[in-house]
Design brief:
It is built from ten helices and seven strands. It is an alpha/beta fold. The protein has a seven-stranded parallel β-sheet with strand order 6-5-4-1-2-3-7, with helices on both faces. The structure holds guanosine-5'-triphosphate (GTP) and magnesium ion (MG). The site of magnesium ion (MG) has 7 residues, from helix 2.
Length: 267
């Protein structure tokens, strides 16, 4: 019979090493891609995926995985402000998106609302993350008031997103106007990028603690009934795999060293 102290030591060791949640940030459409690009360079603990219908935009984005959706539909041109097009393209690419997300424990779906790709694709990506049982968050960025009719498109997109993800956080680009003062649009967007980066960091830290605690409790309960543990070695979660697209004529040549930037996935 193990004594209480031995039990506690084993539980502590298992809880420490058992799990490192795998975190993925998926940026859909132009704004989502910009944010993922910034996270790729500033947050080394998360995997980044860029999803877009716009081939040229995707070429300029750094991310661990890049998925060009709807090549047969928009011919790499973007969804032209039509969310139904973004949604169709994402639905056609479900298999690729699912594959890219399948090892993730926590998924953040990020998109600017009011355009076609982000508004239409983000709910589909969120739905896939849910189906994979990942803890899923959505971060939606509302367009500037001066963008007019985009506001209504954005509202519908956020409603769709909320149907998939209860934990949807809405940020306002208008807020930047107050903050930004004389700075350029690029500098203002950097404010939101930093904010999102911080938000993801703090949410992750909280979830990781909750997961650890849950595991600690489960492990402790499991130990209540057993006397000896013969081969309970701590295991580490495998690294998220990088998915390489087959080399086809649709694959974009990247100007970056291949060790840094994997192939763009194309469907
Ligand atoms: N904070 C922030 N907002 C952005 C950025 N780029 C675009 N936006 C906002 O996001 C909204 C949607 O724009 P995009 O993400 O470019 O649109 P899209 O999803 O690519 O849509 P299509 O180009 O029609 O396929 C815009 O109306 C802007 O308000 C960015 O880099 N940062
Ligand atoms: Mg676009």
């Amino acid at each position: 019979m193990m004594n209480r102290t031995e039990n506690e030591q084993i539980v502590a060791a298992l809880s420490r090493d058992l799990i490192e949640p795998r975190i993925t940030v998926v940026g859909c459409g132009g704004a989502g891609n910009n944010i993922v690009h910034s996270i790729y360079w500033s947050n080394k603990n998360v995997e980044t995926i860029a999803v877009n219908t716009d081939e040229a935009k995707l070429e300029g984005v750094d991310a661990h995985k890049r998925i060009l959706i709807g090549k047969d539909v928009t011919h790499g041109q973007g969804a032209g402000g039509f969310p139904e097009v973004g949604e169709l393209c994402a639905n056609m690419a479900r298999g690729f998106i699912r594959d890219a997300l399948k090892n993730s424990d926590i998924v953040f779906v990020v998109a600017g609302m009011g355009g076609g790709t982000g508004t239409g694709a983000a709910p589909v990506v969120a739905e896939i993350a849910n189906e994979l049982n990942a803890v899923t968050f959505a971060i939606a960025i509302n367009p500037f008031s001066y963008e007019g009719s985009r506001q209504e498109v954005a509202k519908q997109g956020i409603d769709r997103l909320r149907q998939q993800v209860e934990r949807t956080i809405v940020l306002e680009n208008d807020y930047l106007l107050n903050l930004a003062g004389d700075s350029t649009v690029g500098e203002s967007f950097a404010v939101i990028e930093r904010f999102i980066n911080k938000l993801i960091g703090s949410l992750n830290a909280r979830i990781s603690r909750e997961l650890q605690e849950q595991i600690r409790i489960e492990v402790a309960e499991a130990f209540l009934d057993i006397d000896t543990v013969e081969s309970a070695k701590p295991t580490r979660a495998p690294m998220a795999e990088i998915l390489y697209a087959e080399s086809t004529s649709d694959t974009i040549e990247t100007p970056f060293p291949s060790k840094d930037i994997p192939e763009i996935l194309s469907r």
